[in-house]
Amino acid sequence: MTKVTSVKSSDSVFNPKKFIENERTRSALKVEEINCFLESNPDDQKITHELLEQIITDPILKCDSYYYDKEKNQEREITARKIKRLSLYMENDIKLMQKNQVKREKIDIIKNLQLNPKSKFLVNKDLNIFDKRLSLIGMIDPQLSTRVGVHLGLFGNCIKGNGTDSQIRYWLQERGAIFLKQVYGCFAMTELGHGSNVAALETTATYDLDSDTFQINTPSLTATKWWIGGAAHSATHAVVYARLIVKEKDYGVKTFIVPLRDNSNFQLLPGIIVGDIGKKMGRDGIDNGWIQFKNVLIPREYLLSRFVKVIPNQESTDVSVKIQPQLDQVSGYSALLSGRVNMVMDSFRFGSKFVTIATRYAVGRQQFVQVNEVGRIETQSSKKKEQHGHNIANVSNNKETQLIDYSLHQYRVLPQLAIVYLISPAAHDLMSSYYNTLNELYEISSPKSDKQQADTTDKNAFSTVSSKLKNLFISSASLKATNTWLISNLIDELRQCCGGHGYSQYNAFGKGYNDWVVQCTWEGDNNILSLTSAKSILKKFVDSATKGKFDEGLDSDDFDYLDPDFIRKVYTHDISATLEDTDDNTNESLETYIEIWKIALIQLLIHIGKTIQKTKDFDQTTILLVTVSKFHAIHYMLKTFYTKLKHDEISHITDQHSKDSLWNIFKLFSVYFINKYSGQFQQFKILKPSQISSLIQPKLVKLLKEIRTDCIKLTDAFELPDAVLNSPIGYFDGDIYHNYFNTVTANNPPESDDPGKPPYHNVLTSMLSRDYEYDSRLGGSLNKDILEKLGK
Amino acid sequence: MTKVTSVKSSDSVFNPKKFIENERTRSALKVEEINCFLESNPDDQKITHELLEQIITDPILKCDSYYYDKEKNQEREITARKIKRLSLYMENDIKLMQKNQVKREKIDIIKNLQLNPKSKFLVNKDLNIFDKRLSLIGMIDPQLSTRVGVHLGLFGNCIKGNGTDSQIRYWLQERGAIFLKQVYGCFAMTELGHGSNVAALETTATYDLDSDTFQINTPSLTATKWWIGGAAHSATHAVVYARLIVKEKDYGVKTFIVPLRDNSNFQLLPGIIVGDIGKKMGRDGIDNGWIQFKNVLIPREYLLSRFVKVIPNQESTDVSVKIQPQLDQVSGYSALLSGRVNMVMDSFRFGSKFVTIATRYAVGRQQFVQVNEVGRIETQSSKKKEQHGHNIANVSNNKETQLIDYSLHQYRVLPQLAIVYLISPAAHDLMSSYYNTLNELYEISSPKSDKQQADTTDKNAFSTVSSKLKNLFISSASLKATNTWLISNLIDELRQCCGGHGYSQYNAFGKGYNDWVVQCTWEGDNNILSLTSAKSILKKFVDSATKGKFDEGLDSDDFDYLDPDFIRKVYTHDISATLEDTDDNTNESLETYIEIWKIALIQLLIHIGKTIQKTKDFDQTTILLVTVSKFHAIHYMLKTFYTKLKHDEISHITDQHSKDSLWNIFKLFSVYFINKYSGQFQQFKILKPSQISSLIQPKLVKLLKEIRTDCIKLTDAFELPDAVLNSPIGYFDGDIYHNYFNTVTANNPPESDDPGKPPYHNVLTSMLSRDYEYDSRLGGSLNKDILEKLGK
C-alpha cells in the first residue's frame, strides 16, 4: 500500500514533534527528581523502572496495539497464558526476597517454603515485589492484574484474614496457592440478589454432626454466586461466603474453602454448577462466572476458623460454636481493604497514562479557533477572501494555534494533571498505613495455640489497632470512591480532548475507560463507600463537637480538622478561609490551601448536623454526606502532598524551580476543586460570592497559564515508556501523525487480493443493483400487460 | 444444565415483579396520554409505534442479546445486511408518501421517480417516514442508523445543500442514491490533521483547462481523509471537501463528487487509496476508513455548483470562477445541521431507554442500608445476634429496602428521568424548525435557471431565512452539545445505579455508552459547539444591551431573555429570582421556574462582558461561555416544555393528575440544575446562599419524593418494548432475576463435552502442576548431587 508520508522535516506533519521538543528545551524542570517524588523514594523508583522494563520487554506479558483487536475468547486465553508466565516471575520475586533466609544452602527456595514445615511463614511484605509488579501490570493490562489479584488478593487475603495459622500455611504455602501452584482460588462472596451487602447473603453451610461435615447449598436463584472472577474457567477452589448453620441456628455469614475443579484435568466436581457470566463492558480477559452448590460436602476443617470455631464434643454427640465477634468483624473485611488501598494506587498509575497522552496531544495538535459558522457569515474580510481567492502560497500560512494555548483546553487538561500528581503521595501513604496496620493486627491477634486465642489477646493493643483499622477503613473508602470517580471522569474528559482520535481504540481511551469504570462499583460501590466513610466522620464530628472526644494520637493525621478547638474556632468564626496570594510559598501561605478545606468540612458537617436535628430525617442528608467523603479525600490528598513536599528529605526535590512547579500543582488542585464546589463554598459561607469572582477564578486562570509552561516535562516525569501508553498519539517523540497512521495501517492491512473490497461485498452489490418491483420482484415482465390480463 | 429457579410466587426472587406491579396499581397516571405528549401528537405517536413494531419483529433488523457478543467483522457484515433490508423499507416508505402522485396509473413509483425526468422532485419531507424509521433504529442499533445516515444524511444533504437542481436530481434521484440504489455515498470532510475545522483542510482539487477536469490530490499525510464512515467497505462515491484551485488561485474549500469504487464489483478505482480505521470505542458496525487521492480526475461537472461555478469561456482558452458567498456559507453547513438536530432527538430516545431500565431496577432491587463496616463493630445489638446466632426461620425476614426508597438513589435516578422528559418537546420543536427553515431556504434560493441565480434571489426574504438559520445554528449547537453530554452522563450514572449488573454487556449500558459518547465529538465537538453558540449569544446580548437591537419577530422565541427591557430590569434589579412555592400550578408560579434561568443567563453575560472589558482577554472567558451555552439549552427545554404542557390542545393531556405530575417533572428539572449550578447562581447573585439551603434543596427533596410515587408509570409512558430495551434487568414484567439469569445462560451455554472446562485448560493445568526448579527445570535430578559434581 502506498502511504502519503513525509520525509521533509519542514513538513507540517512534523510540527507536533517540534512543538514537543521545544517544550522540553524550554522547561528547566528536573524530570528525574520529580519522578522520584512521584514514586515515593529512590529505592521504589528504581524498582518501578526495573519492573516496568521487564514487563514491556517480556514477549508474553507485553501489550501492543494488536491487543485492541482481540475478542473475549482470545482475551481469556491470552490472559491465562500471561498468568502462567507471571507464576515464574512470582517464584523469582519470592526467591529474591528469601535468598538471605537460605544463605549458602543448596536448596530450592520455593520447594523449601512449600514442603518444609519449619520454613519461614510468608507474610504480606514477603510478596512486596510481586505486588508491585502486579500493580504496574494494572496500568498496562488491568484485566491481567485483576484476574491474578482475585486469586492472590481476594482468595489469599480472605484466608489470611479468616484462617488459623495452620490453615493459612496449608492452603497458601504447603498446597502452593501463594506460588500459583496446585490451588487457584476465587472469591465467592457476591450473589445474584446481593452485592457487597454481606449480611444478607443466602448461601448456606449446614453442619452435620454425624459426618462432621458442612453441606453447602444454593437455596434460591438469587443466592447464585454471581460475578465470581475465575469461576467460569480457572478456579480449582473458592472461598465461599455462606451462612453458618449449626443445629438449626444461623450464626451469620462465615467463610469456607470449597473445591470446585479437579486441578489435574479441570473437570468440575460433583454438586458444583458453574456458568460463564459472559461479555462485560470491559476486562473480558477475566472469566467471571456464577456458581450454584447442590449438597456439596466439605470437611469441618474447611471452615476458616481464626475467629469462629465449630467444636464437636469428645463423644461427637453435641457441638458448640465459638465466635470471637470483635476480631471476626474487623478481619472479615481485610480482604476487601487490600483491594481498596490498591485501587487508590491504580488511580494514580492509570490516570498518569491518560494525562500523558492528552497533554502531548494538546501540545502537538493545532487548531484554529473553530470558526463560528454564524460568525463567519458576518465577517466581511473572510467573505472577501473567499470570493476572490488568494494565492496558493498563502494557504500553508494558516496560523493554527496549539490546542494547549487555548484557556479552555488548559482548563480541561491541566487540572487532570494536578489530580494525578495529588493522588500519588496519598496512594503511597495509604499503602504503607495499610501494611503497617495489618502487620500490627496479625501480631497481636496471632494465637499462640488455637485454643487460647481469645484469652491471650492484649486488649489495649487490640483496641489501638482496631481504632487504626477503623480510621483506615474511613480514609480508604473515601479515597477509593473519590479517586476512582475522578479517574473515570479524567479518562472521559481527556478522550474528548483528543477529539475523534480519542475514539479510536488504538489510542487507549476506549478500552481504558471500559476497563476502569468497574472500579467505581466493585469491592464497595462508590456511593455506598462514600456514605460509609461520611457517616463515620459525622459520628466522630459529633463526638468531638459535643463531648470533646478526639484522639490526639490516632486522629491527628487524617482527621485533624475534627480537633474540638478547631471546630469551635470555625463555629465562632474565629477563623476564616483565605488563600494567601503570595508567590513565596511559605508554609503559612501554602497551608491556607489546606485549611480552607478543613473549614469547608466543618461547615458542611455543621449544616448536616443541623439539618438532621431539624428534619429528623437522616436519609435526606445522604446526598450531602457523599460530598463530605469527597472533601475528606481532597483534604487527605492535599495534606499528604504538602507534608511530603515540605520536607526535602522525603520529597527528594532539591531543585527550586521544580519545587515551585509542584507547589503550583498543589495550589491548582485546591483552587480547581474550590471552584468546582463553589456552590457549597458559598452556601456554607466559606467564601463570599465576590471572592469566587475576584480570588478563586483569576487564581485558577493564572495557575493554569503557569503550569502550562512545564506541562510536557510534568508528564515526562511519570516516565512511562511508549509501550505502557500503547497510544500512538501520545508517544514520547511526539510524531503523532506518523505513529498513529502506522498503527492503524499495521492493524488493518488492506484485503490482500482486492484492496478495499469487503468480504461481504455481494450484500452491497446486490442491494445497489436491485431491479424494480414490477420488472422483477413482482412478475419479471412488463407489469401493465400482465395486470391488464389479470384484470380481465 | 440445572438451574436453581423458582416456581413459587412467594419466593423472594419474585419480589421485583410484585414491587413493580404494585407501583402500576398504585399510580393513577395516564400512560397513553403522556406517551402522546412525549411523541408530540396522536399521529406521530401512532407512526412511532407502528414503525417500532416493524423494526423489532423484522427478522433481520431486530436486535437481541446475541448482538452483544459480536465482534467487529461480524458487526460490519450484519450491519450491511440490515442496510440491504432497510433499502426495501425505504422504497416502501417513499411509495406510501407518493402514492397520491400516481393515482390509478399502473406504474412502478420508484422507477418513475428515478427515470422519468418529469416526475416529482423529491424534497426532505418526502422522506419523513423513513427518517423517522432511522431515528427509531438509532435507539436500538445506533451503528446501523449512522451507517445509513452517513449516506442519506451527510452525503445526500451535502448534495442537496451544495448541488444545482440538476445535480441533485441526477445523483440522488436519477442515479438512485436516495433509494439506496447504484450510488452509496460517504462524506469525505475531516482529515487526519483537521477535524471539523473546514477552512484548514488540505486536499486539493486543481482545475485543468485543457481537459476541463479537476485533479484531486492528497498533498500530505495530514491531508488524508480520516474517519470517513463508509469509506473502508461500502462507498461507491464520496463528496470530497477540497480546496478549489483555479489558475493557481485558492478559492477555499468546496465540495466535489468523486467516484471511489466500481459499483458492480466493488473494486477500488485507480488513484483511490483506501484503508480501514479499524477498531473503535463503539459503533464497530460502521466501516470508517481513510482515503488518499493520487491524481484522481473528475469532470468539471462533478463540482457541486449551486453557489460556486467554474466557467471556461466559449473558446476554452480561459476560465472564470463565480461564487455566491453568502448563500455558499449558509448552505455549506446544512449537511451538518441535520445531524445536530437529529442528535437532540437521539438524546431523548436513547436516554429514555436507560432511564426505563434503571428505574425498574431501582424499584425491583432491594438492599440494606449498606452496613457500615466500622459502624457494625460499634453496634452492640448486631454483635449480640452474630454471637449467639438466630433461628433460621428469621433469616428470610431480613427487611431489605427497595433502592428507590433511599433519598440518595432517588437523587441519582429521578433527575435523569426529568432530563429525558424535558428533551422531548425541545427535540420535536427543533426538528420542525429545521424542516420549516430549510424548506424556506430551498424555495427562495432555488434558481430559475443556473445563470440567473444570484439576481433573482429575493434579498429580503433571504435575509429573514438567513437570520432564522443563524438562530437555528445557535440553538441546535447548544442543544446538541448540552444534551449529548447530559445523556453520556445519564448512561454512566444509571449504569452505576444498577451496580455490578450494570457492567454486564447484556444489560445494555456498556455498549450503549460506547456507542453514545462519540456524539459528544462528531459533527462539531461539544466544547467547540458550545463556544460557537455562546459567542453568538454574547454578540446578540451586546447588540441588545448597548444598541437596543432585538428582532421581536425572530428572537422572541429562543432568545426572549435578550429583550432589551428584560436586560435592563435584571441590570437594575427591578426583577429578582424566586421560585413560587405553591402547588396550584398557575402560569405565574410555573413561569418563575423559567424566569430564574433568564435572569441567570443575563447575569452570566453581564459578568462575561465586564470581565472582557477589564482583562481585554477574551480567551479566558471561554470557560464561562461553555456555561452560557448550557444555560441557553436548559432555558430552551424549560420553555418548550412549558409552552406545550400549558396548552391542552398541543399537550393532549386531559387528566389532571398526569398534568400535575408532568409539572413536577418540569420543576424538578429546573430545581435540579439550579442546585447543580448553585455555584454560579450564588456567584452572580441570582440566589443568596440561604436560599440554596432553605428554598432550593428542600424543594428538590420534596419533588423527588413526589415523583418517586409515579416513577414506574412515568417510564412505562415511554412505551418501549422489551426488544428495544434489550436489557433483561429492565424488562416490563419486572422479573429481573429470571430474565437476567436466562439471558446470561442462553448466551453462554456450558461447554458441551465437559462443562466448566475451558478450551485452554492445558495452560492452567501445566502452570498449577509445574515442578520445582532444580527438580526438573534446571536438571531433572537431585540438585545437590549434581551441584557437588559440578563444583569439584
TrEMBL record, chains A, B:
Coiled coil: none annotated. Residues 333-537 form the Acyl-CoA oxidase C-alpha1 domain. One of its GO terms (cellular component) is peroxisome. Pathway: Lipid metabolism; peroxisomal fatty acid beta-oxidation. It is found in: Peroxisome. Pfam families: ACOX, ACOX_C_alpha1, Acyl-CoA_dh_M, Acyl-CoA_ox_N. Its cofactor is FAD. This is Acyl-coenzyme A oxidase. It comes from Arxiozyma heterogenica.
